[in-house]
Amino acid sequence: MPILEIDHLQKAYGETHILHDINISMEPGDFLVLVGPSGCGKSTLLNCIAGLEPITGGTIRIGGGDVTGVSPKDRDIAMVFQSYALYPTMSVARNITFGMQVRGVDKATQAAKLAEVARQLQIEPLLARKPGQLSGGQRQRVAMGRALVRDPKLFLFDEPLSNLDAKLRVSMRTEIKKLHQDLNASIVYVTHDQIEAMTLATKIVVMKGGVIQQIGTPAEIYNRPANMFVADFMGSPAMNLIPAQVRSEGGQTRIEIAREGAAPLVITDPVARELPSQIVLGVRPEDIHEATGSAHLPRLAQGAGGDVMIEIVEPAGADTFAVTHLGGKPVTARLRAESAVRARALFPLAFDLSKVSYFSPESGERLN
Ligand SMILES: Nc1ncnc2c1ncn2[C@@H]1O[C@H](COP(=O)(O)OP(=O)(O)OP(=O)(O)O)[C@@H](O)[C@H]1O
């Protein structure tokens, strides 16, 4: 049975529609990440799940029970906010046990739960301190501790790492992932950071303008984006989106891409595909390879590339990024660090056609 089922959810503020026909089904133990740009409605959706915002239409079920009209405290959820929302005058220990005290949990159980989460989160030495005496990462841990002692059906996290510096964010991300694995907890997590989404989620919901664009595993979202918005939003550097023309010939698909100062680059997809004459070809930087000595790239089809003029070369330690222009757009290839690629020179590049996406230029939807 799904731990969370959202069915045809609508949310409006007066005449302003914020969320449109949201449908989500989440299994127990899932780490479901709601991701999208600022203003896409992900926090509003989380608040609807928590019961902090009334919904305009549809239903929400948690653990099989309809909670649509149920107050937040009766939904068996625990929420961790971006602001942590700790009580400043209470010690760390009191912050964690206070909710249990209010619910009438006996003292011995409170102490046992406190000890358990303090150990899990490695905050034992901090229990007597006040929130003002903690670092951002430590406050974050206390806020999580407060959620953990509730042992709820569902954890809700609203951008919990956004107040931390970059380095701490990465280490807290690892901790949250470990916590999820250890507890097998069901988590709904909001972030605008696509890397956080990719690294944490078992399931990603990509949103834009209050509409779900795609739901899938991180691999599905990355490898088979449903449309150009998802293709562009997920992945860094972003997927290259190259306008191209298609000619079907003899059971193959010929794709022509305009190249500056030279005849179009013609690549041949060995699969016969039903494509419109104009498409946008999506290819991730790591799926564009140096075409010379491609013996180590057996999956590269014959005729999958050609010489292109390299404009900029950016060494980045483990990789080297090479930027060219194709179809009138800048195109980035992620090459090996030891690549001989040079700026302002021709260089042979080939696309891994087993990995490319084709999109409709009009609707932006995936075609293959
Ligand atoms: N009380 C409100 N009344 C009217 N509009 C609101 C209200 N609260 C939020 N909105 C609007 O709803 C939309 C979604 O907001 P929401 O905070 O859910 O976005 P978000 O994706 O979480 O963005 P962010 O990452 O910036 O927090 C925004 O356009 C926002 O202006």
From TrEMBL:
<protein>
    <submittedName>
        <fullName>Carbohydrate ABC transporter ATP-binding protein (CUT1 family)</fullName>
    </submittedName>
</protein>
<dbReference type="GO" id="GO:0055052">
    <property type="term" value="C:ATP-binding cassette (ABC) transporter complex, substrate-binding subunit-containing"/>
</dbReference>
<comment type="similarity">
    <text>Belongs to the ABC transporter superfamily.</text>
</comment>
<keyword id="KW-0547">Nucleotide-binding</keyword>
<dbReference type="InterPro" id="IPR017871">
    <property type="entry name" value="ABC_transporter-like_CS"/>
</dbReference>
<dbReference type="GO" id="GO:0005524">
    <property type="term" value="F:ATP binding"/>
</dbReference>
<dbReference type="Pfam" id="PF17912">
    <property type="entry name" value="OB_MalK"/>
</dbReference>
<keyword id="KW-0067">ATP-binding</keyword>
<dbReference type="GO" id="GO:0008643">
    <property type="term" value="P:carbohydrate transport"/>
</dbReference>
<dbReference type="InterPro" id="IPR027417">
    <property type="entry name" value="P-loop_NTPase"/>
</dbReference>
<dbReference type="InterPro" id="IPR003439">
    <property type="entry name" value="ABC_transporter-like_ATP-bd"/>
</dbReference>
<keyword id="KW-0813">Transport</keyword>
<dbReference type="InterPro" id="IPR047641">
    <property type="entry name" value="ABC_transpr_MalK/UgpC-like"/>
</dbReference>
<dbReference type="GO" id="GO:0016887">
    <property type="term" value="F:ATP hydrolysis activity"/>
</dbReference>
<dbReference type="InterPro" id="IPR008995">
    <property type="entry name" value="Mo/tungstate-bd_C_term_dom"/>
</dbReference>
<dbReference type="InterPro" id="IPR003593">
    <property type="entry name" value="AAA+_ATPase"/>
</dbReference>
<dbReference type="InterPro" id="IPR012340">
    <property type="entry name" value="NA-bd_OB-fold"/>
</dbReference>
<dbReference type="InterPro" id="IPR015855">
    <property type="entry name" value="ABC_transpr_MalK-like"/>
</dbReference>
<feature type="domain" description="ABC transporter">
    <location>
        <begin position="4"/>
        <end position="234"/>
    </location>
</feature>
<dbReference type="GO" id="GO:0140359">
    <property type="term" value="F:ABC-type transporter activity"/>
</dbReference>
<dbReference type="Pfam" id="PF00005">
    <property type="entry name" value="ABC_tran"/>
</dbReference>
<dbReference type="InterPro" id="IPR040582">
    <property type="entry name" value="OB_MalK-like"/>
</dbReference>
